Amino acid sequence: MNSKTSNKIKVESWGRLIEILYDESYQDGLGRYRSNYAFRGLSKKSYPLKTSLIRICGGKDKLESHILKNFSKYANIHDSFNYTLWNWLAIAQHHGLPTRLMDWTYSPFVAMHFATENVERYNEDGVIWCIDFDKAHALLPQPFKEALGGSHVFTIDMLSLMIKELDDLQKFQEEDFLLFFEPPSMDDRIINQFALHSISSRSTTILNKILNKHKDLYKKIIIPKKLKLEIRDKLDQANITERVLFPGLDGLSKWLTRWYSPLKKGK
Fold first, then answer.
1. What is the pTM of this model?
2. Is the pLDDT confidence value at 1 over 80?
3. Which of 81, 98, 117, 147 could form a disulfide with 56 if both were Cys (CB 3.0 to 4.6 A apart)?
4. pLDDT digits (tens, 9 = 90+) for 143-165
5. How far is residue 113 from each of residues 83, 108, 175, 239, 246, measured CA to CA in Å?
6. Cα(133)–Cα(211) distance, rounded to whole angstroms?
């Protein structure tokens, strides 16, 4: 995306949405289509990129260590004696604990799902955020760049060698920074959602603030409310559903509930 192109793009058709999501995905060096973007779909375009820790705990950074400490204390997980901070963070996020992590996906179609799954929001525009993780990592402190090597995103093993406590992140530089890492493949949900996480150097950072300083990192795709139902129906036909993304009876129930929910008048 060049400097003359707006970061906010409102699409008016399914075809245009696909075109924008896969824009800039061709890699000359590889001769392949391999996107450097992480995607996050939200049912309402005005939702800020706040972590669950900020949304639920109000940005009280001192609570973070207590929450995670007690999670690891009371979680009854077999063979967890050798877990690192990053194992616990990923598992906690996976099970709904407030953390400074944010969920993303490599898959544009999974992001489309989360932008259109809530039938109660069909009277509002949705959004898909796209962040170039290679460009984000180019802004990292030098030790992180060296640790990353030739990889595009971090693993928990890489991060475990560098960071033992979350407070250590902000010691590398004063300015907030953002990095992406892949969670371990704990279950089919992680795998099917093609998941990755972002984490910022400060627990109180709202991601929009970083993006506003570095507008070349992202694009924000607005999905008009009139387009949501078409996208939803085409995703269902492509088998991008709760039944697949949340394997098990819970996901099956969520899928059937949405499938058989009549649209309300005006939606």
1. 0.94
2. no
3. 98
4. 999 999 989 999 999 999 999 99
5. 32, 9, 34, 10, 12
6. 12
**What would the 3-class secondary structure string for the chain be?**
CCCCCCCEEECCCHHHHHHHHCCCCEECCCCEECCCEEEEEECCCCCCCCCHHHHHHCCCCCHHHHHHHHHHHHCCCCCHHHCCHHHHHHHHHHCCCCCCCEEEECCHHHHHHHHHCCHHHCCCCEEEEEEEHHHHHCCCCHHHHHHHCCCCCEEHHHHHHHCCCHHHHHHCCCCCCEEEEECCCCCHHHHHCCEEEEEECCCCCCHHHHHHHCHHHEEEEEECHHHHHHHHHHHHHCCCCHHHHCCCHHHHHHHHHHHCCCCCCCC
- pLDDT of residue 267 exceeding 90: no
Over the stretch 84-93, which tens digit does the pLDDT of each residue have? 999 999 999 9
Q: What mean pLDDT is reported for the chain?
A: 93
The Cα–Cα gap between 185 and 177 comes to 25
